[in-house]
Amino acid sequence: MSIASWSVQPDASKAEEARIRDLIDRLGRVEGLEPVVTLLEDTCERGSQNLLEPGTQVVLNCKMHATADFGVRGDITSVLPGIRAAGLTRWGPVDEKGQDGPYATGTVRYALEYQRTRGHYPDGRPMLSPRLTADGLAIDWDRLCRS
């Protein structure tokens, strides 16, 4: 769900974990989504010396990554607008009125259009699979089979 990096700062780790857990909690309150399992990985590895600035050394590089699986009660098309309404982030590009751009991948509008047309543009060409992405956050789901 999110990836963040920092040099050893325990407060940064705690703050990032709180931010990630808050996003997952807010997503879990979307009607039609049922939290199933969450995996939170917090890893650190030995750092390296900065060759351009002798005397500086990063002791540890740390990353945090979370994967949260949710079940969908009903149809994904009824849940996608709720994900947008939850206000987690702005999904994909928007126009001057703040609306999702037409056929702009990464938006709820595109994902809904993909589901409605069974993954095809009006001219019959296949659409790219939808995925909501923004600010280190990604939401993905099982797709309809193309026909």
Main structural class = alpha+beta
Strand content: 25-35%
Gyration radius from CA atoms, angstroms: 19 Å
Largest sheet: 3 strands, antiparallel
List the helices and strands in order. EHEEHHEE
Strand order of the largest sheet: 1-3-2
Mean pLDDT: 81
Shape: globular
Distance between the termini: 30 Å
Q: How many β-strands, per DSSP? A: 5
What order do the helices and strands come in, and which of them pair?
Elements: E1 3-7, H1 10-28, E2 33-46, E3 60-72, H2 76-85, H3 108-116, E4 132-134, E5 137-139
Antiparallel strand pairs: 1-3, 2-3, 4-5
Helix pairs in contact: 2-3
Could you please describe the fold and organization of this structure?
With 147 residues, the protein is an alpha+beta fold. Helices cover 26% and strands 26% of the residues. The protein contains three helices and five strands. The strands form two sheets. A three-stranded antiparallel beta sheet has the order 1-3-2, with helices on one face. A two-stranded antiparallel ribbon has the order 4-5. A hairpin with a 2-residue loop joins strand 4 and strand 5 (137-139). Helix 2 (76-85) runs antiparallel to helix 3 (108-116). The protein starts with a strand and ends in an 8-residue tail after the last strand.
